[in-house]
Design a protein that fits this description.
- By secondary structure, the chain is an alpha/beta fold.
- It has helices spanning 11-20, 47-67, 87-98, 120-128, 156-167, 199-225, 241-252, 274-282; strands at residues 2-6, 30-37, 77-84, 102-106, 133-136, 147-151, 175-183, 231-239, 256-260, 286-290.
- The chain has 2 domains: 1-139, 3-Layer(aba) Sandwich (Rossmann fold), CATH 3.40.50; 144-258 and 268-285, 3-Layer(aba) Sandwich (Rossmann fold), CATH 3.40.50.
- A 10-stranded mixed beta sheet has the order 3-2-1-4-5-10-9-6-7-8, sandwiched between helices.
- Helix 4 (120-128) links the parallel strand 4 and strand 5 (133-136).
- The protein starts with a strand and ends in a 6-residue tail after the last strand.
């Protein structure tokens, strides 16, 4: 696995680097520490601008080198990369050139103000990129196994997220919670506007159908994940998906949410689905959004 660690030298980036330490990485894995030096569009014909750019490049090289010791406990291959330009664009282009399997970055950068809001660069990378991304909010506790909440709705995107969770080098003792939300929003039209007086019965049958599907998805995914993790629990709840996921994060005290970028209703493409986007913005823990690569 090749991981691209995007850093701007902030405390949030350092937390992301320390998060990687929780992965059971070995010599077969590689972490590329990258910094995107923002291009302020100042012409090199101006001496001050040229000197400023040279100083920035020198500082960026030192920045990525300073992050290498944080990754020494991982026992993996570590190298550095510096690019110039718009940070989110350079991160995505760097991931493409490297053939990265996962982008890891802090949820905010140097300009971060509110710890509960995701930074603009991280948001752009996840929303517009074609790569799976782990947005780190805080370090998980070392005194207990990692608590992971995996969300499924039976979609291709969710299954890919499950495959990624099984492939990621988390400890085998991690606690995996498989969650499916039975969406209660059957119709946007009030029942009184339906001509059939049995509409309540039909809606109840549809909800029951959705519940059975959720049970099927959770059971299948839990069985698959038990081949990799010892402690796998199953959960089915009713309500609005993103709201129920966020409540599950709080209730389980999850360290990480793993979910696909699109739900069963999502359109094709790399843009982020509404539920994934809301969870990414509001979850009080790290979030991994899995995106199916083009080769799939």
């Amino acid at each position: 696995m090749r991981i691209l660690l995007a850093t701007d030298g902030s405390e949030y980036s350092e937390t992301a680097a320390r998060y990687i330490q929780r992965l059971s990485l070995g010599p077969e894995h590689e972490v590329v520490v990258m910094h995107a030096l923002k291009d302020y569009l100042m012409p090199d014909s101006i001496d001050t601008a040229r000197d400023f750019r040279k100083a920035g490049l020198k500082g960026a090289e030192k920045l990525v080198d300073d992050f290498k010791p944080l990754l020494e406990p991982c026992r993996c291959s570590v190298r550095t990369l510096v690019r110039e330009g718009d940070p989110s664009t350079e991160i995505l282009e760097g991931a493409q050139e490297l053939g990265a399997d996962l982008i890891v970055m802090g949820h905010r950068g140097l300009t971060g103000i509110n710890r509960f809001l995701i930074g603009s660069v991280a948001h752009k990378v996840v929303k517009h990129g074609a790569y799976s991304a782990l947005i780190v909010r805080e370090l998980p506790a070392h005194v207990r196994p990692l608590r992971i909440l995996y969300c499924t709705d039976g979609s291709h995107s969710a299954r890919y997220a499950r495959e990624m969770l099984a492939a990621l080098p988390f400890g085998g003792d991690s606690e995996i919670n498989v969650l499916s939300v039975v969406d209660m929003d059957i119709s946007s039209l009030p029942e009184k506007y339906y001509p059939d007086e049995e509409v309540s019965v039909m809606m109840a049958e549809l909800r029951e159908h959705n519940r059975k599907l959720a049970e099927k998805y959770v059971a299948e995914d839990a069985e698959a994940l038990r081949m990799r993790y010892k402690d796998v629990k199953q959960h089915i709840v009713f309500g609005i998906p993103d709201s129920e996921i966020l409540m599950a994060v709080d209730g389980l005290q999850a360290d990480l949410v793993v979910m696909g970028s699109k739900g069963s209703r999502g359109l094709r493409g790399i843009l982020l689905g509404s539920a994934s986007q809301r969870v990414l913005r509001h979850a009080d823990c790290s979030v991994l959004i899995a995106k199916i690569p083009d080769r799939h």
